Amino acid sequence: MEGSLLEPTLYTIKGIAVLDNDGNRILTKYYDKNIFPSSKEQRAFEQNLFNKTHRANAEIIMLDGLTCVYRSNVDLFFYIMGSSQENELILMNILNCLYDSVSQILRKNVEKRAVLESLDIVMLAMDEICDGGIIIDADSNSVVSRVALRTDDIPIGEQTVAQVFQSAKEQLKWSLLK
User: Which residues form the AP complex mu/sigma subunit domain (predicted)?
Assistant: First the structure.
């Protein structure tokens, strides 16, 4: 194996995980069924990963043959896993894209409660970044623009007062222009 080149592949991401500050799973996606064939192995790996990283002051770890980059904020840990030969800068770029996208979606309120309340949009952002282990997008602004909810689609009962006034103002403006 030494001295030989590996076959190039688009499948760079082996998994994405968001864990809380106790190591419990909030959101995970694994793209390589050969590495973690069952949920039991996934959870054991997540627990081991959390135990090694929750007190560490680093951004990268090699664990069980995987390169893992991670970032923590308040009560969440974000992880991107790739193969041991994967470029760490690419993995870190995807991690930053995921974190920045979630931060923009949640209006800089990146904490467990906010992520759980907007889990559908966070999952959609995760799918926009990586599909089946292939990186689709690494720009957080384009990810957020594709997953952004339009205020027209939000039921009036779930809109804020400012959103209701803005919507009413736009409807009044359009009715006067007709």
Answer: 13-150
